[in-house]
Amino acid sequence: MSKGPVLRMRDISKQFSGIEVLSRVYLDLYEGEVHALIGENGAGKSTLIKIMAGIHMPNNGEIEYLGERVSWASASQAKEQGISVIHQEFNLFPNMTVAENILLGNMLPRHRVRPIIDWKKIHRQAQDLLTLTGIDLDPRAKVKALSVAQQQKLESGRAVL
Question: What pTM was computed for the model?
Answer without folding.
Answer: 0.66
